[in-house]
Design brief:
single chain; 332 residues; alpha/beta; Rossmann fold; 8-stranded mixed beta sheet; two-stranded antiparallel sheet; 13 helices; 39% helix; globular; disordered N terminus; 2-hydroxy-6-oxonona-2,4-dienedioate hydrolase; AB_hydrolase_1; hydrolase; AB_hydrolase_fold; hydrolase activity
């Protein structure tokens, strides 16, 4: 994908959502990963443990705008636009490119890229026993959590920790799937401020947290040429048959060996918090925490609370391990 006026680096933070992250040293690049021109942001010392953040359906890396700088105090943070989302290119595969296995394969390419950069940055620094630099966590919201969980099940040992925020793939409610399809389609087929704001306010309990900068960023995205066609493709997981074959099975959940924290807002429109608690019980040793009075996007709606819950868990899970300690964090 070549840069167009709508994808040029000059417009990467056109509305100021990423100003704090940029001030903290964040850089945006567009490497070709897994055959996809991928818009990616990195911030934090490359010598720190790696945390990769994955957004949800129809979204973009700005979903994590408020937590990148706070997380970067402790981790080397990477967020990216999923294939066909944000300002990344379309999926490499024409058939099944918007289903979860394809996203998992692309995530592997992202992890390979980040690992290569980390190795290059650490040359000459040396590395001692128990060094945490090579440890990796995934933080996924909604579709991002779905991808992260399926990745951990399919690639055992590749990541050390997961924070799964209202992950998709754990239930299939026709009403929720219909609402997401309707709101997303309206926002992209007739892109205007009101439709985009409706789509974004659905994600939060407090509509005032949907800022003008977020609306403007999403509106610019939805006004890109071909945006409606891409949205139609990526909404395939809201089709009951497609969703069914991509769900996280009991066997997959039980096979996750990474330390896992499941978060779910008590005001999440995609389902009750008990959905998250039930899913956490399917993962050996996983912790669950309900986020009171928050919706589907706690990392944006209340970044302070999200950071206070997630960072201590990740710091423990990604701490240097001894030969007898695999870094697993357990709890209820």
């Amino acid at each position: 994908m070549t840069d167009t006026p709508e994808t040029s680096p000059a417009l990467d933070d056109a509305f100021g959502l990423l100003t704090v992250a940029m001030t903290a040293g964040a850089k945006i690049t567009r490497p070709v990963l897994g055959g996809v021109r991928t818009r990616l942001i990195e911030v934090g010392d490359p010598g720190l443990p790696i945390v990769v953040l994955l957004h949800g359906t129809g979204g973009h890396l700005e979903a994590f705008a408020h937590v990148l700088a706070p997380f970067a105090r402790w981790f080397h943070c990477v967020a990216y636009d999923l294939p066909g989302h944000g300002w990344s290119g379309p999926p490499a595969a024409a058939d099944g490119g918007y289903e979860v296995p394809a996203y998992v394969d692309h995530l592997d390419a992202v992890l390979d890229h980040v690992d290569q950069l980390r190795r290059a940055a650490s040359r000459g620094r040396g590395r001692g026993p128990g060094d945490a630099r090579g440890r990796v966590a995934l933080v996924g919201v909604s579709l991002g959590g779905w991808i992260a969980a399926r990745h951990a099940a399919a690639r055992p040992g590749r990541v050390d920790a997961l924070v799964l925020v209202a992950p998709g793939g754990v239930r299939a409610d026709p009403a929720v799937m219909g609402a997401l399809r309707s709101l997303s389609s309206a926002a992209v087929e007739r892109p205007g401020e009101a439709a985009v704001r409706d789509r974004l306010e659905w994600l939060v309990a407090d509509p005032s947290t949907v800022t003008d900068a977020l609306v403007a960023t999403r509106l610019r995205l939805y006004r890109q040429p071909g945006a409606a066609e891409r949205m139609a493709g990526l909404l395939c997981l809201q089709d009951p048959d497609v969703r069914r074959r991509n769900m996280i099975s009991d066997v997959e959940a039980a096979s996750i060996g990474a330390a896992t924290l499941v978060l779910w807002g008590t005001e999440d429109p995609t389902g009750p918090a008990e959905t998250g608690a039930a899913f956490a019980r399917r993962i050996p040793g996983a912790r669950f925490e309900a986020l009171t009075d928050l919706g589907h996007w706690p990392q944006f709606e209340d970044p302070t609370r999200f950071t206070e819950v997630s960072v201590p868990f990740l710091r423990t899970a990604l701490a240097p391990s001894s030969p007898t300690d695999n870094g697993k964090v357990t709890g209820t």
